[in-house]
């Protein structure tokens, strides 16, 4: 194994995990971040149930794409199988984040995708952030974390959503997963997702008949920041 | 008395009490934590109405299971009798926490138990967190704090709820009590209770027809973290 | 003038003013605290519109009960006349606090008194925290701050409320005033008022048919903390 | 160019930009502040998409009123054209602030102006904070940021609102812009706008039939703080 690569991945994954409670997205030991190195297939993920205050970069667990632990004394996050399934299906993503952030969970519990009610949404998510269907008892009882990954992929496939254009999802009755090119970007997407979830909640209270923004405004804001014609930022 | 035991209990109870305002669950002098040592029957509890900023570990009050003060110059929390009643009925718990945390109080004031709308709930509470019936005038006027304990126990008995599986309750018109094997665990349960209370509030706003999660998902998440087949954490 | 008395009053009033943004009750320069010395009739109040970060204890303004500035280079809070009117009518109070704290303002703007939905309310406020009627155009245009004081007193007189038992009020379309024996106590009452305002908001959302707690529970909690039979705290 | 002038403008604009996340109004790189010097026509604005933690005063971008970059290695905020359009139409303002602050966005997404429900509103905004109409696809696709400025001006012109009396606006489906004589004042107006947006949300929940405050109370509070007869503050 490439020691230097793993060291750097551990540090990035560790920093991204710490960024979650700092952003107010995670309480206690909830939430986890992983990163994959696409060349070697090496995955680094947070250990299961270790308090943030005691966690060190070196505690991050190293696995392969099949979930075999390659290094580290600790057990990986119990959500590992979900992460791996997403890496297998969504070839362009290099990091996955799972949280129980309050507002995203509220929509997941309500079983509703988050409509694009404004440009804050459109800047990051190109359309509705979808909510999966409910898992069946068979799925939950057989291979729960794997099936969680599968139902996310099914949602994006069925609804023909590009996971790079909508880098996040709500799992019915559970909570959000987001992803991105890097752990930092995946965490940012979790921050935005929780923010737009809260904005959408109250938007519907302030105006019971509100509709999503028109497609042309969604296009404008999304493509102002993404793709070949982006002109936001210093890039 | 075992000096060393009491010293350690005081430090744990003190730390757990301080954890409440740190977690945003307590304002002013509201809230209290106690611990019992089952072998000796010694109980340690926060003193009544002392500001958190001035409180020291040694201010914690030592009593027996009948509420007699064994050591300490200060009066115990006025809620002591409720704690003692819970220790007598719920033999497996070693710590009790009472707060007026905002969201849990809102449900207590609304007189409703908190339905299990998602996995954040199921990870800690195996089903509805119940709300007691309203105390009668006779109960309130005779031995209020004792009767508060009794009505909690009545609720768990009548509804056939295992207090280890649902380590918390809402007292009608008042607020939450939680418990656990240790003061730290009991405090964590208060943190989770307030979080799921807030999530449930907005879940019902976002989807007026939402139902609790199915039993098989409740089972999965609860038993992923508890019992002989648990696989969450490093245990 | 008693230099020592004034120095101590200034320090208490200054500390109480700073406690407001610390408790999250005040943004920018909103909010003010005053104290009266009943023997000398000396009143100390925050200066008008001075940023909290630049304010010093010595900037507090000294006036008499008629609002004449006795010492200090700065203008007193524009709400001075309201404070003075309350001191004249409510003989037992020694401090008044005015804030625009979010949740209390929401009820004031809604024109509703806050019902006693739980024991958190009852511990500090012995019944509904009333909301005044709307001031008339004549009252607003003639002597607005004085009339604000008068309408508060009118509310307590008409509704036969003891200002020591309900140490706070909402002024219609404006916001809360609280009071107490000391600046610290008056600030605490502002903290509690905002907290119970928020609790009451959501209580009504979680249960649309909720009623206030029964009188016997209100009695129990209020008199557990106040009056000759109080047994809460170390007093 | 006047080096000293630009240096001071950069420092003020930098400080004002940092004040936004400090006040909880901005996450990630959202939000921007600019200032204009009316004599020279020099504009200083935040660079586009630079993280707040890495930004230095010297990174602020210097442009003229037509948007030509006069100094600085970085690209200006993508919202520059909106700022410039406002400076051209609203001759008395010297600073513009744009944020995605949560509560103001909620009203913008709901497509509603914020009614003046209380004196907290009236102290800063002399009447409804208006919401623009939705931009057409043609406007969005041709010169989006410029048209955003134009629709704000159209709103104030059509509704005959004085931009100095109502120093802020909601852009439909997008979010708030505020302005003022100085960057500090424009930021303060953003703080107030988000606060009154939240207050108004819940005011409507607590009382479904609430009406705005009467004109005489709006007058009283606004003119207590603004204009020749103002008596609030030390001015």
From TrEMBL, chains A, B, C, D:
Which EC number(s) are documented for this chain?
A: 5.1.3.4
Q: Which Gene Ontology terms cover its molecular function? A: aldehyde-lyase activity; L-ribulose-phosphate 4-epimerase activity; metal ion binding
A family per Pfam: Aldolase_II
Gene Ontology terms: biological process: arabinose catabolic process
Enumerate the InterPro entries for this protein.
Aldolase_class_II_sugar_metab (IPR050197), Aldolase_II/adducin_N (IPR001303), Aldolase_II/adducin_N_sf (IPR036409)
Q: What class of enzyme is it?
A: isomerase
Tell me what reaction this enzyme catalyses: L-ribulose 5-phosphate = D-xylulose 5-phosphate
Per the record, its GO cellular-component terms are: cytosol
- Key words of the record: Arabinose catabolism, Carbohydrate metabolism, Isomerase, Metal-binding, Zinc
Q: Per the database record, which ranges form the Class II aldolase/adducin N-terminal domain? A: 11-201
State which pathway it belongs to: Carbohydrate degradation; L-arabinose degradation via L-ribulose; D-xylulose 5-phosphate from L-arabinose (bacterial route): step 3/3
Tell me which cofactor or cofactors this protein depends on: Zn(2+)
Family, similarity comment: Belongs to the aldolase class II family. AraD/FucA subfamily.
Q: Which NCBIfam families match?
A: PRK08193.1, PRK12348.1, PRK13145.1
State what this protein does: Involved in the degradation of L-arabinose. Catalyzes the interconversion of L-ribulose 5-phosphate (LRu5P) and D-xylulose 5-phosphate (D-Xu5P) via a retroaldol/aldol mechanism (carbon-carbon bond cleavage analogous to a class II aldolase reaction).
* Annotated protein name in UniProt: L-ribulose-5-phosphate 4-epimerase
Organism lineage: Bacteria, Bacillati, Bacillota, Bacilli, Lactobacillales
